[in-house]
């Protein structure tokens, strides 16, 4: 009915959605106007659309993605709707946990007077080591799960060969990972020297620093090492390594110890 039509400005005030938002939700297939003037493009809505507008406003207020709102509002199964909302709740919880982690990291930086690292860079010679390894192509999003699965695969291969781990596991970054690119990483677990079927990784002179804390707060260690290498006129001589000195299943995230090594050209 024509009398039921409400101009977009009035509907905006009724729904508490801006005119810009209403145009956007129309473009996204969420809330189309009941009528659009073919000459002027002016839009009218029906009063009955206010309920859908309110649902959209509430769901966007809890940061549900537009695509998922479209799917949710197109679903009339209460159980599936509940599952979709519960899945979003878990995403919000994970996001909150990450923000709390960043807050703790910031508090530690404040306690250190702004110093990124408390450890000093050391230069040392690391010996050749026989390793069981696997090379994976990963992104920043997939690396956590890939590393966990990859180390499990390596442990299985070591057991099948009748060998046993002989040192701390480590990871070699053959490529730089960033938000827009995948790269290759090599997962390694040392085994006794000369174990058949496994390769030997050559020794190297390395610049080293030990990071204490969660794995995802390790970036400052790389910053310190690369800065030290540049300031001291040394040259990188291979991909960096992360050696995991203790077990995340036995210590908390703040107690994790990770040694970061950058191979550099040999001693002067």
UniProtKB/TrEMBL annotation:
The HTH merR-type domain covers which part of the protein? 5-75
Organism of origin is Actinoplanes sichuanensis
- Which terms are listed as keywords in the entry? DNA-binding
CDD domains in alphabetical order: HTH_BmrR (cd01107)
Q: Which Gene3D superfamilies match?
A: 1.10.1660.10, Regulatory factor, effector binding domain
At the top level of its lineage, which domain of life is listed? Bacteria
InterPro entries, per this entry? Answer: AraC_E-bd, DNA-bd_dom_put_sf, GyrI-like, MerR-type_HTH_dom, MerR_fam, Reg_factor_effector_dom_sf
Would you tell me the protein name for this molecule? MerR family transcriptional regulator
């Amino acid at each position: 009915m024509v009398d039921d039509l409400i101009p977009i400005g009035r509907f905006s005030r009724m729904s508490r959605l801006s005119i810009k938002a209403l145009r956007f939700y129309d473009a996204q297939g969420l809330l189309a106007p009941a009528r659009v003037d073919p000459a002027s493009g002016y839009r009218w809505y029906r009063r009955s659309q206010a309920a859908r507008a309110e649902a959209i406003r509430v769901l966007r207020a809890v940061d549900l993605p537009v695509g998922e709102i479209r799917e949710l509002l197109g679903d009339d199964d209460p159980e599936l709707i509940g599952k979709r909302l519960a899945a979003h709740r878990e995403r919000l919880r994970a996001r909150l946990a990450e923000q709390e982690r960043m807050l703790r990291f910031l508090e530690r930086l404040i306690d250190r007077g702004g110093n990124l690292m408390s450890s000093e860079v050391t230069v040392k010679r690391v010996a050749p080591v026989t390793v069981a390894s696997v090379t994976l192509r990963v992104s920043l999003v997939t690396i956590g799960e890939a590393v966990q699965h990859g180390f499990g695969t390596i442990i299985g291969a070591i057991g099948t060969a009748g060998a046993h781990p002989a040192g701390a596991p480590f990871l070699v970054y053959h490529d730089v990972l960033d938000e827009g690119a995948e790269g290759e990483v090599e997962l390694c677990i040392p085994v006794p020297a000369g174990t058949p079927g496994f390769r030997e990784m050559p020794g190297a002179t390395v610049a080293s620093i030990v990071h204490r804390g969660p794995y995802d707060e390790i970036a400052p260690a790389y910053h310190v090492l690369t800065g030290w290498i540049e300031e001291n006129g040394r040259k990188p001589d291979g991909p960096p390594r992360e050696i995991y000195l203790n077990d995340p299943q036995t210590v908390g995230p703040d107690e994790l110890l990770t040694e970061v090594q950058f191979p550099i050209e040999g001693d002067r």
